[in-house]
Amino acid sequence: MLKTTIQGLLTAVKGLTLTIKHLFAARTARRSKDIKDPNYFERQDGVTTVQFPKEKMSIPEVARYQLDVEIDDCIVCDLCAKACPVDCITIESIKATEAIGKTSDGSVKRLYAAQFDIDMAKCMYCGLCTVVCPTECITMTNQYDKSTSKLTDLIYGFAEMSEQEIVDRKAEWTKFQAEKEAAKTK
Ligand code: SF4
Ligand code: SF4
């Protein structure tokens, strides 16, 4: 009985010592270090979290976060969607009857982007889509604070065509095809 009581007291003292140690250490708060600091991963004592979003941890320049698409530079080749292992990129293209412009790297654009959606709720941030893009117009940005309570808010649309434009461009292509077929049968 005496032995058990002493053991209980010793355990309580041990536990309290640890609690008091952490309590005093908590006077030191973590400081957000620059990612280039050689001691970035050094163990820090005290409170090891930062007061997000007031304080933010420094992140690498090449970090993989929110995707962005510069749609004016997209040739709608669908390579990114094909490379995506989780099928979170949905692209719908419409063929143009002639070249419709050039991207900033000089690639000729022959397709309209009727739909270009990325579901960031499914994205696993592998970066494959950015690697295969021939015009480098799909990139991973340093934006990571995109939390929302609605999953559908995480579907980002990058296409800029209006409903009417989509209808008109589709009609143009259908007419063009029909005229081509008619010319063949003449
Ligand atoms: S980063 Fe990976 S998972 Fe996300 S859209 Fe690109 S290919 Fe798909
Ligand atoms: S790979 Fe690049 S150019 Fe091709 S559809 Fe995707 S974003 Fe556009």
From TrEMBL:
Residue span, 4Fe-4S ferredoxin-type domain: 63-94, 114-143
Keyword Metal-binding: yes
SUPFAM superfamilies (alphabetical): 4Fe-4S ferredoxins
InterPro entries: 4Fe4S_Fe-S-bd (IPR017896), 4Fe4S_Fe_S_CS (IPR017900), NADH_quinone_OxRdtase_chainI (IPR010226)
UniProt name for this protein: 4Fe-4S dicluster domain-containing protein
Signal peptide: none
PROSITE patterns the UniProt entry points to: 4FE4S_FER_1 (PS00198), 4FE4S_FER_2 (PS51379)
Family matches, as Pfam families: Fer4_7 (PF12838)
Keywords, comma-separated and alphabetical: 4Fe-4S, Iron, Iron-sulfur, Metal-binding, Repeat
Domain of life: Bacteria
